[in-house]
Amino acid sequence: MPPSLRFLKWLVIVLTLTMIGGVITVVGVIVTRMPQAFQSSPPSLPDGIALPQGAKAVAVTFGTGWIAVVTEDDRILIFDADGSLRQEVALTP
Fold this sequence. Notes:
- It is a single chain.
- The protein has one helix and four strands; from the N terminus they run H-E-E-E-E.
- It is elongated, with a radius of gyration of 26 Å.
- The protein is of the alpha+beta class.
- Strands 1-2-3-4 form a four-stranded antiparallel β-sheet, with no helix packed on it.
- Strand 2 (66-71) and strand 3 (75-80) form a beta hairpin.
- The chain folds into two domains: 1-40; 43-93, no CATH class.
- 40% of the residues lie in helices and 27% in strands.
- The model has no long low-confidence stretch (mean pLDDT 88).
- The N and C termini lie far apart (68 Å).
């Protein structure tokens, strides 16, 4: 076997071992970190959130102590954890 092919063969072997090590590392990180993501408690909704008359929710997001609702008429309604309206932000196109 010519020396250049022997060198190429070793490069392929090293690359293969590096890729195997990388895959094992990624799988290990996913396995060890994923259970922590599911241990946190899901966000809790208050008993009732009253949207203004005619408003329809398009998206909802949760923060620490607040809930944001995006409506079809381009508004963001921010509610407290108890369901009372804290702030209303109008979006401009």
